[in-house]
Specification:
Number of helices: 15
CATH class of the largest domain: Alpha Beta
Shape: elongated
CATH topology of the largest domain: Rossmann fold
Largest sheet: 8 strands, mixed
Structural class: alpha/beta
CATH architecture of the largest domain: 3-Layer(aba) Sandwich
Bound molecules: cytidine-5'-triphosphate
Helix content: 25-40%
Strand content: 15-25%
Distance between the termini: 36 Å
Radius of gyration: 25 Å
Number of domains: 2
CATH superfamily of the largest domain: CoaB-like
Strand order of the largest sheet: 12-11-8-13-16-17-19-20
Amino acid sequence: MQTLADSPTRHLVLGITGGIAAYKCAELVRLWVRAGHTVDVVMTEAALAFVGAATFQALSGRPVRSSLWNSAERNGMDHIALSRNVDALIVAPASADFIGKLTYGLADDLLSTLCLARDCPLLVAPAMNRQMWQNPATQRNVAQLRADGVTILGPDSGEQACGETGEGRMLEPHEIAERVAAYLQPKPLAGLRVLLTAGPTLEPIDPVRAITNRSSGQMGYAVAAAARDAGAEVTLISGPTALDAPWDVERVNVETAAQMQAAVETRVTGCDIFIGVAAVADYRVVAPSGSKIKKSEASMSLELAANPDILASVAARPNPPFCVGFAAESEHLLEHAELKRRRKTLPLMVANLAQDSIGRSDSQITLLDDHGVHPLPLASKTQSARWLVDHIASLYHARGSSR
Ligand code: CTP
């Protein structure tokens, strides 16, 4: 999962409108401030009916503004000045009424005027009753905002403050923070399709037993999220893991190497970049038993057959995508990794020591490409994945321009 500590510091403006989810914004401001961001809070009159300005003043350490009329500080020009030199303006929660105002360019209070006069990106996190959300008027307004270049965050579905259940809940504060951070990342993979494998595979022995490995899937999921944040359309073919699918990533669940290969083959055509992060089992049981094997002998043996090498077969396609492999080794890291890179004819191999990486949330990776060996510092898997994606993007684009 992306941690906020991995984001560069930003100057953000948070606009709070009248909705019960306004109380959650206290946590959002706290998360942003803890990550080192500067946050200016602007509240509508309706928002002030739900939460007090003092809460946000204390959490942001900056004055909270709500009126067009009482600001001497910037010659009464808050509605202009507040969006200048900021990274983004985020409205959360955005009520149905405020979304309507935004759609039609109405400007009758500080926040709506600020939105109209902004010169920074606008992100909006709707929060309302499910019927209000589904109402054609709201849906029309949201579609218009999207067409106008506004980014809509969520909403989520679930239990609502009114007691009903459905779509319209504001995203949780950490999800809003994550999506804003993702939005602000550079987009070197915009317009590209990335296909990844991640996690372990699981090769059945009988209905209750299987051969698998200790891969948690964390690195593959972090790379999928980093590629998405870099602007790519991402498909993740995942072996069994305990991880939630990263948002805005298509996840395809598989168990065996054969299923993983079939899932890759049906999706690889048209993909620009293929990244094999999965710890694919090298062997499968030739004849898995249909019923649970009973212990009857002091020992037993299983006949194993080699699994197909998914990455090698993608790299061997005519006109292959840009292929990236992972080599988790317990010794002679760089020699083994470079050997694998050459054997599978990959432009890029990521090497790490298995004992330092599997099941951990940080990693120290080394990148091997035609230009040499590039060791990266120990970092969270989120950060390592971002560095890797940046490297992939620069090699990918350099390859394109040298063709
Ligand atoms: N890989 C694959 N299909 C396989 C085996 C591996 O796609 N059947 C991919 C992995 O996703 C990873 C890379 O190949 O990107 C790992 O290379 P490999 O030489 O297969 O690694 P190991 O299986 O760890 O090899 P060894 O057991 O020989 O160390």
